Each structure stands twice: as C-alpha cells, then as structure tokens.
Amino acid sequence: MTQSPARARPARSVLAGIAAFGALGAYVLVSSVSLGLWTSLGPGPGLFPFAMGAVLASMSVLWLLQELKRPSAAGEGADGGLVLAVVGSLVLLAALLDLLGFQLGMFLFLMYHLKIRGKRGWLSALLTALAGSVGAFYAFNYGLNVALPVSSIPVLNLIGL
Amino acid sequence: MDTLNELLGGFATAMTWQNLIFAFLGCLLGTIIGVLPGVGPVAGVALLIPLTLNLDPAGSIIMLCAIFYGTQYGGTITSVLLNTPGEASSAITTIDGYAMTKIGRAGAALTLAAVGSFIGGTVATIGLVAAAKPLGELGLLVGPPEFFALMVVGISLLVALAGKSMVKALISGALGLLISMVGIDPVAGAPRFTFGMDRLLDGVSFVAVIVGVFGLSEILSYRKNAETPLVHAPGFRSLFPSRTEWRRSAPAMARGTGVGFGLGLIPGMTGSVSSLLSYASEKKFSHFRHELGRGAVEGVAGPETANNAHANAALIPLFTLGIPASPTIAVLMGAFLQQGLTPGPSLFTEHSEIAWAIIASLFIGNVLLLLLNVPLVGLWTSILRVPTPILTALILLFMVIGAYTINFSVFDVFVMIGFGLLGLALRNLDIPLAPMVLTLVLGPLMERSLRESLEISQGDFSVFLNRPISAVLIALGVLIICSPLLKFRKPKALTEDPEA
Description:
- The complex is a heterodimer.
- Chain A is an all-alpha fold.
- Helices cover 69% and strands 2% of the residues of chain A.
- Chain A has helices at residues 12-35, 47-69, 80-100, 102-117, 122-143, 154-158, and strands at 38-39, 42-43.
- Chain A is flat, with a radius of gyration of 25 Å.
- By secondary structure, chain B is mostly helical.
- Chain B contains 23 helices and two strands.
- Chain B has helices at residues 2-14, 17-35, 41-52, 57-82, 93-102, 106-140, 144-161, 166-180, 206-220, 243-264, 271-285, 298-313, 315-321, 327-338, 345-350, 352-373, 377-383, 388-407, 410-428, 434-456, 463-466, 468-482, 492-495, and strands at residues 183-184, 191-192.
- Chain B is globular, with a radius of gyration of 22 Å.
- Classes of the chains: A mainly alpha, B mainly alpha.
C-alpha cells in the first residue's frame, strides 16, 4: 500500500479491519481465561490462545496508532459483481449439493459460470460443463475411489444422478 | 554406506510403476499449475491434496512433492513467453527471459532454465541425502524446549520477511495460530472455540482453509477485463542454445545452485528471495553483467537454477527437523500429517522406507521434469490459450471437490467459502498470507512443545533460557522480531516478495 501524504484520515475499510482484529483479539482474551490459563499439572488449554489474543489485540492497537500517524491508502477494492456471483453461486451449490447430487449441481454451477457469466458459446459451455460434472463424477468415483455425493431425490437418484 | 543402501532401497520403492505414475502425474499437474498465472504453488498443492488422500502414504507424498517442484518449472514458461510470472519465484526471470523472447531466443531461454532447474534441484537433493542422517540424529536430541525455540525462530523469520509491515505479519501469524486452536485441546481434551458445533470438534480443515485463503481469494480478487493472452510457442529448432549460451550459463547455474541451496535451508526464506538474490549475484559477479536486463542468459539461468535448488533444499529442514521453511512446504507438511507421517527426525526411524522413497523420487522427478518441459513447451503454452472463464470455472470445480472430499462433508465447502472471503479481506488490507499458513500448520506442534516444556519444568518459564540451544534460538527469534527497532534495514527486494 502506498503512503498518501494528502490523506488526513485512515480509510474506512482499514479502520473496519483494525476494529475486527481488535475485537477478535479481545474476544479470544476473555474466552481464554474461562478455558483456564493454568492447572495443577501446568499450563491450561487457555494459555496459548490467551497469548495469541494478546498479540492480536496489541498489534491492532499498534496498527491503529500507525494509521492515525500516517494513514495508508485504501486497497484497490475487489470487483463486487464477481465476488457476489462467485460466492453466491458457491453457497447455492454447497446448499444444494446433497439434494441435487454432484453431477446436476455442478452442471448447473458450471453452466452459470460459462454461459451466463463467461458468455461462452452453447456448445463450448455444454461440453465443458458435462466434462466437469459427469466426467469428474465418474473419474473420481471409479478412477480414484473418491465418492462424490449423489442426489437425495429418489427420481434423480434412480437415473444415476 | 548405510545411507547409500537406504537410498537404493528408496529407489526400489520409488521406481515401482505405480510410484512412477504418481511422480509423472505430479510433474504434469505441477507444471500446469506453474504455467497458470493466478494459481500459486501454495493453493495448487492444497487443491490437489484430496486427489492423493486415497493413495498409500509414499505414493501420495511422491505425487505432492512432484507437484511442488513442478510448479517451479512451469512458472518459467509464462515468465519467458508472456512477461507474466506463473508463480512468484519466477518473477525476476521476466526481465531477461522476455527480453530473450523479443530477440527470438525464447526456446534457448526455456531450455537453459529447465537444465538449470534440473542441476539446482539435483544438487540440492544430493545435499538432502547427505544431511538427512546426521541432522536427523541431531534432531532426535532436541527436546520440547529446543523444538519450541526452533519454531519461534522459523516463524520470526517468516514474519520479519513477509511484506512491508511487521505488525500486519504478526496479525497474520496470530490468526493462523488461533485457527489451528479450534477443536479439542490436545492435552486437556477440552473443546476450544467450537461455538457448540460438533463439526468443529476435530478442528477446522487445513485444506479447506488453505484452498479458501489462497485459491478462492485469488479468484475473488481478479480484476475486470482479464483477457486470454496471445502466446506463440518457440519452434523445436530454437530450443537448442548456442555453444556461447551454454558457456555463459554454466557459472550462473553454479552460483544459482549455491544461493538457492543456502537460502533454502533457512526457514522463512521463500523461493522468490533466492531467485532475486541470484539475480543480484549475477549483477555483481557475471562477466556480462552490463548485458543483464537486455536478454542476458545469466539472468535466466541463475535465478531459475536458484529457485529449484531452493525448493529441494527447503525439504531438508522439513525432513530432518520437522520445520517447514516456506508456505508451500507448510502445506506439504499438512499433507504429511494427514497421511499419518510426522516430518522430522522420527520420520527416519519410524517410516524410513517411505522417507527414502520420497527422497529417491526427487531425483526421478527432476529427470522427468527435464524430459517433460523442453520438448513439450508447445503443449504448455497451449494451456495459456484456454479462455479465462473456462479456466476460472474449472478451478472452482476443483476447489469444491477438494474441500468436499476432505471429510465428505458440505460443511468444509462452506468453510472454504468463508476463508475465501477472509483471504480477500486480508489481501485488500495488505496483510501477508504466508505467516498465517505457516502458523496454521505449526500451531498445534508449537503449543504441544510449549506445554510439554512447561510441564517438565513445573511451570518455570526459565526452562527455555537454562538450556543453551533453546536460549540461543529464543534470543535469535527475539532479535529477528525486534530488528526494526534496532533499525536493521531489509533489502528492498525482500520487502517486495510477492510470495509472502
């Protein structure tokens, strides 16, 4: 991140990051105490997390002080549309994976990314999606003995999906 | 003599047709990962761990090691032909490699890089053979306090070298340690940070976290309008360097081997540091230093030799002491642990046959890569012509399969997605990811050795200072962490290590 002498205040995203890490450090510090820092046998389960919580909290404070003294420029933001599309489709796929099975779920996922987002031609999208869903399912199931999920819907299950 | 016999035994295991196929597949996949800009070796190795879960431990690690050093070879191709490094340690090769392409010597550059990589990798593997026994025996004398101190030094080095801000590197390291603590406490058996979820009792899946933080976040941070590059493979005839090019490359390869091997032994040093310092040594010692930057063969042969020597030498601390020297090696260590193998001195006593088979496979892999890389350069460049949407979709497909097959649970896919978003946030905040992956692997080992040390000393923290080795190592770790206060200045090149 390049230093920006013109900026008077730290960027909001940076402050939000510092706050999140500081809060996490504070939470870990408090939780570790209840886990037990020391037992009659020696160090307790909370000792190491306590130390890490302390590092996280103190580094957040140090980072804040650095930002207040010399604010850094905000990082170049990600493409919101891409993040939403990828994360949204992944969440949907994960949520429906056991219901639809790997082959159908992955086929729809790939078609979305190839045809709708990637604007590929029908033939190229269909062939890639079939290879990635049905092809990968058979390669993993029978070639590598790695079982990928099948559909929990009886009709789909009956036709091998 | 014992070592030689054991190495020969290792060759006998490594040269079974199954293990040869695993080594070949690893080299192939590693080269593809190296060629693809955007998928680094850390994410690449993590992504392919699930492929090896059902294999026997020797075959699995042979394949993953081949993937690891295959990425070092593959990264060169895009550096030379496209001026875009496939992975960080080939970044410096773009300078003279691409300049050689512009004057029609791309084929020679690729051949010299492959031969240099072979030499560097092979010499470092010979070093591993020589060091394995004595260092392994020394390692057996290391008790919990020394082991803890050794890990402190390793983490301190990585934190000190990772990125521009040590504060941010420490945050990254602490985050990794905290994630590694989720689950059942290894000593008392109490659940920690599980939020009442049974699925978290076994901890957060290492592979899902790494694939999310390194792989998914990379895809999420793609910029708009990424276009498929235009690339032309060099003809077969142009692959042969001239006699002058060979003569000029030889000293650069020798220097690169020395630099890469030496730095590979130091935890925290990444392959990029080795290739950068090798380039710097060419600028200082080469007779043709005035030509560097304008297509000098030394600028390709030196760094490319150094990064492969580094990659193989970095396996020495892992095999002998159980310390991963770089983020990719940390992922590799995670794979060892998943296969029930604990890297370190006990590897040679408890799983000697597997350890030597893996070492023997490094020699085989280096030969395979030389045979694969030079004649098939046209095939590798054709991968670069695959349109970005197809590549992205296929990478996402492998991520989902990889995360799902760790425990055959959709929960791990959600874990991967969550950590992908965390990785994106860390990238946007300019927080280095390397310390996190290292502490994620070392966290449980570090905590266990700390607690064992304190139990031995009945809670007396001076146990770390009363034993000479641990006292020196702790002092070294503190010195490294405090170096900014002492105003030691890092070379500019180290602070800009993209691998960190």
